[in-house]
């Protein structure tokens, strides 16, 4: 199939009275890399909820991110909808399949009039209307390494395992974040490879905890005791800093210190023998420390998968589900189709 790529642009309706909604026009795609982003302005009115959760730094990073979503079936269009609404720089919809009647059961941006059309091209217009700030385009060519290097994030849905492994190898070697997602009936599968030395700024997403201080000992272990009605809520290995301490002022605004939890009201912060004697008051506050993660490429993860457990009552099901998806990929590669229901 010949490669096509188009840019979705907005133009005003010619009829000025009465005013109408904006319509969409498909025009030739121009390279987004030519438009450098020196400073990204965030529409705080549009993204107010996201800003509260993610913060300005994360939103600015998202606003410079180019995302490729391959496979615009039911799952792919849901991913595309949410990514476009989130406010990334650009989203490219990729698909080499044409719309069939079966797509209409879950792809909510396709209609009977789209039967026989390329799925990415058919729904690109409606998806582009979701967010004027996001450049939305479609592409129906092969995913070559030269093409993939244009993106910071690649999402694969509706892809064969051979395609997943090929793209995974290319993405891992090029430092491109890869997400592979699939659904089959009531079962779903997701694989993430964010490369090596991936920095996680906040491991939990929870607000940092703090507690009022009752006393701080002056010894090699430096035991901090919180007031009786204020559990500190910290865990071994957490980092903390201090404020409003009277007497042991050296701790106020100190660099993050690693702690060892001794109980719900006590913890150790290390050597405090050289500090002034504690008098009264103070607040101990948790400091979120970044963590570096190293992800394995898909080829290695398939041989030794590490499961993310969310329901401990179904721990034994994870390996079976993983095997079932692998078997379906093997069946489709051999038969060129998926088995029908109740096919032994």
UniProtKB/TrEMBL annotation:
<dbReference type="InterPro" id="IPR000011">
    <property type="entry name" value="UBQ/SUMO-activ_enz_E1-like"/>
</dbReference>
<comment type="pathway">
    <text>Protein modification; protein sumoylation.</text>
</comment>
<keyword id="KW-0833">Ubl conjugation pathway</keyword>
<keyword id="KW-0539">Nucleus</keyword>
<dbReference type="Pfam" id="PF16191">
    <property type="entry name" value="E1_4HB"/>
</dbReference>
<protein>
    <recommendedName>
        <fullName>SUMO-activating enzyme subunit 1</fullName>
    </recommendedName>
</protein>
<comment type="subunit">
    <text>Heterodimer of SAE1 and UBA2/SAE2. The heterodimer corresponds to the two domains that are encoded on a single polypeptide chain in ubiquitin-activating enzyme E1. Interacts with UBE2I.</text>
</comment>
<feature type="domain" description="Ubiquitin-activating enzyme E1 four-helix bundle">
    <location>
        <begin position="289"/>
        <end position="344"/>
    </location>
</feature>
<dbReference type="GO" id="GO:0005737">
    <property type="term" value="C:cytoplasm"/>
</dbReference>
<comment type="pathway">
    <text>Protein modification; protein ubiquitination.</text>
</comment>
<dbReference type="InterPro" id="IPR042302">
    <property type="entry name" value="E1_FCCH_sf"/>
</dbReference>
<dbReference type="InterPro" id="IPR000594">
    <property type="entry name" value="ThiF_NAD_FAD-bd"/>
</dbReference>
<dbReference type="Pfam" id="PF00899">
    <property type="entry name" value="ThiF"/>
</dbReference>
<keyword id="KW-0436">Ligase</keyword>
<dbReference type="InterPro" id="IPR035985">
    <property type="entry name" value="Ubiquitin-activating_enz"/>
</dbReference>
<dbReference type="GO" id="GO:0019948">
    <property type="term" value="F:SUMO activating enzyme activity"/>
</dbReference>
<comment type="similarity">
    <text>Belongs to the ubiquitin-activating E1 family.</text>
</comment>
<feature type="domain" description="THIF-type NAD/FAD binding fold">
    <location>
        <begin position="47"/>
        <end position="192"/>
    </location>
</feature>
<dbReference type="Pfam" id="PF16190">
    <property type="entry name" value="E1_FCCH"/>
</dbReference>
<dbReference type="InterPro" id="IPR045886">
    <property type="entry name" value="ThiF/MoeB/HesA"/>
</dbReference>
<dbReference type="GO" id="GO:0031510">
    <property type="term" value="C:SUMO activating enzyme complex"/>
</dbReference>
<feature type="region of interest" description="Disordered">
    <location>
        <begin position="1"/>
        <end position="29"/>
    </location>
</feature>
<feature type="domain" description="Ubiquitin-activating enzyme E1 FCCH">
    <location>
        <begin position="220"/>
        <end position="288"/>
    </location>
</feature>
<dbReference type="GO" id="GO:0016925">
    <property type="term" value="P:protein sumoylation"/>
</dbReference>
<dbReference type="InterPro" id="IPR032420">
    <property type="entry name" value="E1_4HB"/>
</dbReference>
<dbReference type="InterPro" id="IPR032418">
    <property type="entry name" value="E1_FCCH"/>
</dbReference>
């Amino acid at each position: 199939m010949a490669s096509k790529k188009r840019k979705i642009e907005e133009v005003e309706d010619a009829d000025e009275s009465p005013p109408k909604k904006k319509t969409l026009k498909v025009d030739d795609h121009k390279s987004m890399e030519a438009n450098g982003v020196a400073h990204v302005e965030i529409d705080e009115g549009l993204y107010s909820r996201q800003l509260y959760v993610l913060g300005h730094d994360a939103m600015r990073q998202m606003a410079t991110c180019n995302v490729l979503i391959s496979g615009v079936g039911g799952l792919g269009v849901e991913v595309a909808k949410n990514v476009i609404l989130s406010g990334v720089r650009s989203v490219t919809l990729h698909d080499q399949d044409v719309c069939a009647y079966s797509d209409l059961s879950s792809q909510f941006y396709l209609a009977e009039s789209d039967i026989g059309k390329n799925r990415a091209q058919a729904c690109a217009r409606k998806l582009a209307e979701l967010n004027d700030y996001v450049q939305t385009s479609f592409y129906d060519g092969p995913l070559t390494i030269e093409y993939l290097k244009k993106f910071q994030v690649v999402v694969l849905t509706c892809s064969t395992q051979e395609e997943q492994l090929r793209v995974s190898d290319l993405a891992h070697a090029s430092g491109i974040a890869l997400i592979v997602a699939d659904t089959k009936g009531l079962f779903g599968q997701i694989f993430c490879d964010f490369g090596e030395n991936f920095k996680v700024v906040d491991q939990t997403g929870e607000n940092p905890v703090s507690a009022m201080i009752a006393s701080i000992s002056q010894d090699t272990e430096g035991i901090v005791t919180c007031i009786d009605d204020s559990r500190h809520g910290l865990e071994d290995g957490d980092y903390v800093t201090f404020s409003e301490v009277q007497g042991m002022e050296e701790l106020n605004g100190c660099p993050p210190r690693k702690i060892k939890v001794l109980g719900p009201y006590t913890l150790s912060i290390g050597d405090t023998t050289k500090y002034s004697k504690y008098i009264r008051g103070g607040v101990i506050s948790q400091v979120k420390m970044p963590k570096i993660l190293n992800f394995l490429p898909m080829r290695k993860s398939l041989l030794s998968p590490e499961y993310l457990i969310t329901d401990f009552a179904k721990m034994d099901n994870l390996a079976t589900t993983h095997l079932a998806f692998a078997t379906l990929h093997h069946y489709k590669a051999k038969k060129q189709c998926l088995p029908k229901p109740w096919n032994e």
